[in-house]
Amino acid sequence: MITYDKFKKVELKIGEVKTAERVVGSEKLLKLAVEIGEPAPRQIIAGIGKVYEPETLLGRQIVIVANLEPRIIMGLESQGMVLAADGTDGPVVLCPEKPVLAGTILK
């Protein structure tokens, strides 16, 4: 259990996938450029490539954790985390029901 005050520190935002490609040397990692209302898209490395083809994510709105410290994954900096549920066939990326402005904070 965490307190509500700790939970409020997690910045969940809507992002729009601008580019997506496979990470060379990995079966499951994708490199995404995600627009969240900042001057430049965020690069996010996500372990969803066994379930999602990169081209199916282009233009799609997703939910990300925006305030994680950057992390190096297979030599690439990841500047956030894609939220996904564990489905029976692998990860299921969380998406808003209706389009919203990129960068919108989830409450």
Structure description:
The chain is mainly β. It has one domain: Nucleic acid-binding proteins (OB fold (Dihydrolipoamide Acetyltransferase, E2P), Beta Barrel), CATH 2.40.50.140. It has helices at 4-8, 54-57, and strands at residues 12-22, 30-35, 42-46, 61-65, 71-73, 76-78, 81-82, 84-87, 90-93. The longest helix has 5 residues, at 4-8. The chain starts with a helix and ends in a 14-residue tail after the last strand.
Write out key terms for the chains shown.
8% helix; globular; mainly beta
Taking pLDDT < 50 over at least 5 consecutive residues as the criterion, the unreliable ranges are: none
Q: What Rg is obtained from the alpha carbons, in whole angstroms? A: 14 Å
User: What spatial order of strands do you see in the largest sheet?
Assistant: 3-2-1-4-7
Q: Spell out the helices and strands N to C.
A: HEEEHEEEEEE
- What form results from the Cα inertia axes? globular
For the record, what is the CATH homologous superfamily label?
A: Nucleic acid-binding proteins
How many domains, as an integer? 1
Number of helices: 2
Oligomeric status: single chain
Our measurement of the CA-to-CA distance between the termini, rounded to an integer number of angstroms, reads 19 Å
Whole-number mean pLDDT: 97
Biggest beta-sheet profile: 5 strands, antiparallel
Beta fraction of the residues?
Answer: 35-45%
Helix content, binned percent: under 10%
Going by CATH, the architecture would be: Beta Barrel
Topology:
Blueprint: H1 4-8, E1 12-22, E2 30-35, E3 42-46, H2 54-57, E4 61-65, E5 71-73, E6 76-78, E7 81-82, E8 84-87, E9 90-93
